[in-house]
Amino acid sequence: MVISLIAAMSENRVIGVQNRLPWNLPADLANFKRITAGKKFIMGRKSYEAEDKLFSDTGNVIITRQKNYPVAANDTTAPGLREAIEKLQKETEVFILGGAEIFTQSIDIADKLYITLVHSKFIGDAFFPEIDLTIWKISKQSNFSADEENSCDYSFIEYIRR
Ligand SMILES: NC(=O)c1ccc[n+]([C@@H]2O[C@H](COP(=O)([O-])OP(=O)(O)OC[C@H]3O[C@@H](n4cnc5c(N)ncnc54)[C@H](OP(=O)(O)O)[C@@H]3O)[C@@H](O)[C@H]2O)c1
Fold this sequence. Notes:
- It contains 4 helices and 10 strands.
- By secondary structure, it is of the alpha/beta class.
- The strands form 2 sheets. The protein has an 8-stranded mixed β-sheet, with helices on both faces. A two-stranded antiparallel sheet has the order 2-8.
- The longest helix has 11 residues, at 26-36.
- The protein binds NADP nicotinamide-adenine-dinucleotide phosphate (NAP).
- NADP nicotinamide-adenine-dinucleotide phosphate binds next to β1, β2, β3, α2 and α4.
């Protein structure tokens, strides 16, 4: 199984503020949907409760320490990252969607990182962990300029392990 992390972050590694995304980038949403179509997601309980959360129609595993945490019909819970991955063992690729706590716990076991780099600095309270370039290398990158719909320049960057 390929374990992929997918995130959008600013130049100062912000991924969220007050449990939501700090920007509006429809192009990122479209790219996210293209990359993750038909795949199952793993996410932390706080991200699952975010107003602008993204979720998979085919099923999500929500990591929480709470017993009997209520989730939607297609979704399930797991008491930790390892248990979440075990639940999806039959999948060829799963996407870990965050947030900060879950990215920090999963970057060391990930095979691939799909990062949207938003070329601006934001104030935030949730951050993506440092990407160690002695461990990760860029396998693909495309750069885009801000336009009427997307307020910042941005890049879609894929990292694989060296
Ligand atoms: N830009 C992006 O790509 C992106 C993507 C996703 C999220 N975000 C942002 O990230 C922020 C949320 O991140 P966050 O770090 O605050 O929260 P989070 O990682 O989404 O969720 C944290 C929760 O996950 C559970 N958890 C974490 N580690 C666990 C473990 N080892 N075992 C069992 N349960 C565990 C706990 O749930 P319980 O408290 O229920 O036990 C914990 O409170 C928001 O601002 C959101 O908008 C950004």
